[in-house]
Structures are given as structure tokens and as C-alpha cells.
From TrEMBL:
This is GNAT family protein. It comes from the Bacteria. Residues 24-181 form the N-acetyltransferase domain. Pfam families: Acetyltransf_3. Gene3D superfamilies: 3.40.630.30. PANTHER family: ACETYLTRANSFERASE (PTHR43441:SF10), RIBOSOMAL-PROTEIN-SERINE ACETYLTRANSFERASE (PTHR43441).
């Protein structure tokens, strides 16, 4: 049997920390559940309950246990216990590619959370895990998310028409990439 993947703690700038999920992170899951978009594109429950919040966190643990990928809580580093404010994941695929996805709670948007997390997980994936290509997909209307990708060194490669179903309809997505050779 293969060993589970290990989700490490990674510094994300001076202010944030990427770390494994803990059951006491349900507060950020509750906040994300109230967002009109996050539950559409993730497994965050659209109707929060303490049981659903805990189930979300347990699903994040199974990602590494089942060798699917790495799901990190994005936490504020200076809060002592590292209060979670979002999520970022790195999902290795085939042929030397991995997908990255992220969300942050409404209460901390515009504070550089996603940018710091994306820089950290990208560096880790490209340098430490030696993944040659990272990809992420963003809807064209989601300017804050694609600007975050660009600030983190991702390059827009094009528009994937009708790429993904979200909320019961097919949506176009920008595809972004960051290569190991871009990082050096």
C-alpha cells in the first residue's frame, strides 16, 4: 500500500501560513458557505451546519490520505493558533502537471491572502515536488482571481470555451500556467 501524502506547514510571506486543516477551522468553512460562489466551485457546503463543516474538513484530510493532492488551510500566522481564512490546494495529475485552486473568506479579501498562498504553494510545488507545470482555471469575470494568478507569475495561455460546469451551466475559463523554468 502507498503512503499518504504529507501536507506540510509552509510560510506564505510574513503574514500567512499554509497548514493542514484542523477541526477548529469550521469558522472559515461557515463563512465560505455563505459566499454565493465558493460552494459552487468547491466542496464547501452551501448550507452550513457544524456537521457539514466538520465533514468538509475531513474530506480535505482524505485528499492526502488517498494521494489525490494537498489541501491546505490558509491561516494568519500571527494569531498564535493560526486562524484559517481560506483554502489552497495542489492536485498533481498526469504527465508532470498539477492543478492549483484557492478561495479566501470574504472578510479577508483584498489583503494579499490568496497572492501569498499562491506564491508559497507554487514555489513548493515547482521546487520541492519538482512538478514541471502548474495550471489553474479562472472564470473571465473573476478579475481578482486572475490578477492574483498573474501577480504570482502565472501566464494566461488562453480561453477554454465551455470548459467546466458551474451552477448547472457550462462556463468558459481562462487557463493559466506556471512552469518550473519560469520560476528559476
Amino acid at each position: 500500500m502507498n503512503s499518504p501524502l504529507v501536507v506540510p506547514e509552509l510560510p506564505a510571506g510574513e503574514t500567512f501560513l499554509l497548514r493542514p486543516w484542523r477541526l477548529d477551522d469550521v469558522t472559515v468553512v461557515e463563512e465560505a458557505s455563505a459566499d454565493p460562489y465558493i460552494p459552487l466551485i468547491t466542496t464547501v457546503p452551501s448550507h452550513y451546519s457544524p456537521e457539514e463543516g466538520a465533514a468538509f474538513i475531513r474530506r480535505q484530510w482524505t485528499r492526502s490520505a488517498d494521494q489525490v493532492g494537498y489541501s491546505f488551510a490558509i491561516a494568519i500566522a500571527d494569531t498564535g493558533h493560526g486562524r484559517a481564512v481560506g483554502q489552497i490546494g495542489l492536485w498533481p495529475g498526469q504527465s508532470g502537471r498539477a492543478t492549483v485552486g484557492y478561495w479566501v473568506a470574504t472578510s479577508v479579501r483584498g489583503q494579499g491572502v490568496a497572492s501569498a498562498a499562491l506564491h508559497a504553494v507554487s514555489a513548493w510545488g515547482l521546487e520541492r515536488l519538482r512538478i514541471p507545470r502548474l495550471e489553474l482555471h479562472v472564470e473571465p469575470w473573476n478579475e481578482p482571481s486572475w490578477k492574483t494568478a498573474e501577480r504570482a507569475g502565472f501566464v494566461r495561455e488562453g480561453l477554454l470555451r465551455s470548459w467546466q460546469e458551474i451552477g448547472g451551466e457550462r462556463r468558459d475559463m481562462y487557463v493559466y500556467s506556471k512552469l518550473a523554468r519560469d520560476f528559476s
